Amino acid sequence: MSDENENTPENDEQLAGKIKGSARQIWLAGLGAYTKAEEDAGRFFERLVQEGEQLENKTRGVVEKHVRSVEDRVDDVREKATGTWDRLENMFDERVSGALRRLGIHRRDEIEAMERRIQALEAELQRLREQTEDRSEEE
Prior knowledge:
Layout lengths: L8 H94 L5 H31 L1
């Protein structure tokens, strides 16, 4: 056998030193890998957050656009429906008023005007009666 393969204390120390050096390098490589992974994970997380914010902003704009569009359509439909109901109501009022006039029934404002006229005539009659009574008493 050769002298190189012999287990001498000197060879054992060299081997132990090499193993110790390799173990330290493995340990340092592990620490480096852990640190790198932690840094990369942080950057990756930040990038994911940014992309999420961008997507949220983009979709918010799209959703708001659709909401405004739907609100506009609802407003249009409401205006058309209101206009239709107003026209129907006016047509109904005109036809009922026409039918009542043909039957000789007057509108409310006409009746109120006649009531005011009657009250004025009654007041005038009362005044004339009082004048007549005053003249009768004088004679």
